[in-house]
């Protein structure tokens, strides 16, 4: 049976920490004394640590995409008090692979492109995006988008879309310039600010928003799949984000 440390070493092979942005805080977030040398039996994988808190007490390791300690609080009260109390009570190691997992080969951006059956040409947006060709029909891509997220929203002209930029999560700065450089017909993102979207539409570039969680979840599921494949006797479970209500 693997130690927690070995599982983390494997995750760092998949998502090398030096791929992370300077402002980011990936890696070990919380570690009980001796936590890394414990046997790993149960691993939870989640987009965000707060999604896994209810069940973290049974886990040895909680792997998340968003770092728990991103903007550390200056005072522990309210929500932070409840979160930290649950984290400490869980007595598990919390580990995050964030912008390093976004950029990594087979990481969040790559996996989203693959889940949409797109053909990845190359990296874009400083590694956070993937420039892709649409191998099938526009209709097939629309169906894939619809199947991936119930929040899928399409803006602009979708006719003849053949070159797209895929950027999971929040769209990065400089997105419009990058789209113009790459000559894409459409952008597929988790979320895009209103003015950026308006600029893209003015340039004749269609915009698809999937919702932040839905755009990153495939990458989280893929991380769980690879850990499961590597450590056969490990119980690896993906904790989904909280349910949302869609009003039609
Ligand atoms: Zn995110």
From TrEMBL:
SUPFAM superfamilies: NIF3 (NGG1p interacting factor 3)-like
Residue intervals passing through the bilayer: none
One Pfam family named in its UniProt record: DUF34_NIF3
InterPro entries, alphabetized: DUF34/NIF3, DUF34/NIF3_sf
Cellular component aspect of the GO annotation: cytoplasm
Domain of life: Archaea
Binding site for a divalent metal cation: 65-66, 102, 212, 216
One example GO MF annotation: metal ion binding
Keywords of the record: Metal-binding
Family, as annotated: Belongs to the GTP cyclohydrolase I type 2/NIF3 family.
UniProt protein name: Uncharacterized conserved protein
